[in-house]
């Protein structure tokens, strides 16, 4: 998690997403976002905060955090919008948080946890996601940057990924769950796709399965953004 002074208060979202069946008329998308630097219209400051976001009906319904009915908060101390501190700096100490989203096989609700701290933050009720009643077809990890002008904001630490893992933001130990909460690691046979925008403002380095018990499946990402004039 990096503190990053973006341009003109952009929105930076590090996310995990789930897609329902693509053949259904309503595209249900559940997006969990963390490590966000947002515009004052959402948070009122430029601090790194924990965010949640969900949307259905092709983006016509949904919201951040608790700004509309949807996400049900359970924990009394950790909540959507809480400040994340301390944060990493390039060349300094690295700070991590492990996040998990899973569907309870009994209730079919989608739960959000800080699994390294054994904190259950809350859940999205099954009624929100009609196409995710029986799980998701796709899952993904990454970051997106949204800005209201022609400048693209920095992403991650503001640096492109390189051979030094401490220079850029990263995801590590990636897993997804099958039926009855069985955790699996992405394999070469899984239909994995990489995507990065064409602007050249950002980069990604996919290390795939590192063979390390600590790092597991890993990728690093980021870029200067603002210098691109995108």
From TrEMBL:
Task: Return the Gene3D superfamilies for the record.
Answer: Outer-capsid protein sigma 3, large lobe
- Protein species of origin: Pyrus ussuriensis x Pyrus communis
Source species, domain of life: Eukaryota
The residue ranges of the Neprosin PEP catalytic domain are 1-229
List, alphabetically, the Pfam families matched.
Neprosin (PF03080)
Question: What name does the UniProt record give this protein?
Answer: Neprosin PEP catalytic domain-containing protein
Q: Which residues form the signal peptide?
A: none
Which ranges form a coiled coil?
none
